[in-house]
Amino acid sequence: MRLFRLLKIATVASRFGLDEMVFEHEPSGRLARLANALQFWRNLSAPRAERLRLALEALGPIFVKFGQVLSTRRDLMPTDIADELAKLQDRVPPFDSALALQEIEKAYGRPASEVFAEFNPVPVASASIAQVHFARLHERDGGHEVAVKILRPNMLSVIEHDLALMDSGAMLLEKLWSDGKRLKPREVVAEFGKYLRDELDLMREAANASQLRRNFTDSKLLIVPEIHWDFCTSTVMVMERMHGTPISQTDKLRADGIDLSKLSEAGVEIFFTQVFRDGFFHADMHPGNIFVHADGRYIALDFGIVGTLTDSDKNYLAQNFLAFFRRDYKRVAEAHIESGWAPKETRVDEFEAAIRAVCEPIFDRPLKDISFGKILLRLFQTSRRFNVEIQPQLVMLQKTLLNIEGLGRQLDPELDLWKTAKPFLERWMSEQVGWRGLVRTFKQEAPYLARSIPQLPRLVHQVLASPPKADLQPQLEQLIATQRRQNLWLAVIAILLAILFARPYF
């Protein structure tokens, strides 16, 4: 089977001239001349990016998904290819409805008619991994309208075969392409495989949706569908059906009385809230996954890809954004090195000069005309010259920011992203280094302090009671001095803890 699949890939690649795209970078040039000699039977007049997109569509859902992922790696892909591959969103034909019904029966051990009071066999959405059908639960289960997401049949075996072939192709690229080692195609394939396997487990996606819904409980900005856990398996996910207008239908939104300017600002606010408050963000926010409720709130859908950020990541981002708008390029360079993503031996002055060359021309334009996403992208490209390792979660963030920014300016061309985002950045920095940060740290450490402090006298007593050794005498004296100081602070800490827990945070 793998041999036939390999032959099909080779045939499609040759038909669309992908061999020419690779061989033209082969150092010796012999393979490029061979590819040119074979052009007599094929039409290669279309741009290379379009031919690549068509080839991926011809190879099927897994390769379409790979193209979607590649379109987000703008730190690696040429701009024309990244832009063309972005067109692969929502271009996957659905699988047969009979197969969908079979998958439901396999998941629940009973036919769809017994699981659902109503089930529409015609899918309302289809993607590379799964498709969605509308249904209604039986009255005994609440009678709710639901959306049923069903994994494509036999995906795991297809994925493993295709990933193995992609890895082999990536290995050839590294050997034949002059830029192969720098672009690390095998690492890109491995990263793609990780995300793909995660998306194959719909229980994981359901958990992502549940977490995001909990983060935005009672939100006036965002609605996340409720998950019906009793009907979720690794291959079928059932969630609340959402009613709204696709965000791309701006004319209908205007006709419904939605303020597009406020809607665009709300989108930015939602994004920065996810990033800097929660460190957990929806990483696939293209227009196909966003609807607008009649009351003007966003509706988020499709939670297969989410991003997470550590406190270190958030600190890096906040410092870079704030330093950039202060034109403090030295601080931007230092933040890269301090985070460990740029080598320690990197010269700050050279890195600073490169960043200045990227950023300084931007300030000749109004802030509302500045693209955050493109700034981050150009910083990534500049960083590559200094061997900076771009973290996958930040690439996902940059891709999501580009989506949100493009969407926001489609709704309101006058959107000032900085004006909307600045309060969140400043608030977050205040919470990290100001008095709010001190209070938060005390709250986080309180359980540890409450458990550890009472043990100190016993530990000191054990040390004092044991026979002293000459080489331990300095440590013993230091421990006794520490205990005396600790006794002095115990009362202070107890008072602080009492104050903290006696009043609500903020």
- Share in helix: 55-70%
Q: Give the biggest beta sheet.
A: 5 strands, antiparallel
Count of beta strands: 11
Unreliable stretches: 491-506
Radius of gyration: 28 Å
Q: What number of structural domains do the residues give?
A: 4
The chain-level mean pLDDT equals: 77
What percent of residues are in strands? 5-15%
Secondary structure layout plus pairing:
Layout: H1 2-15, H2 18-23, H3 30-37, H4 48-59, H5 61-72, H6 79-85, H7 97-108, H8 112-115, E1 116-119, E2 125-126, E3 130-137, E4 145-151, H9 155-176, H10 180-183, H11 185-199, H12 202-215, E5 222-223, E6 236-240, E7 245-246, H13 250-255, H14 260-278, E8 280-282, E9 290-292, E10 298-300, E11 306-308, H15 311-325, H16 329-338, H17 348-359, H18 372-385, H19 392-411, H20 417-433, H21 435-452, H22 456-465, H23 473-502
Parallel strand pairs: 5-10
Antiparallel strand pairs: 1-3, 2-3, 3-4, 4-6, 7-9, 8-11, 9-10
Helix pairs in contact: 1-4, 4-5, 4-6, 5-6, 5-11, 9-11, 14-19, 14-20, 15-16, 15-20, 16-17, 17-18, 18-19, 20-21, 22-23
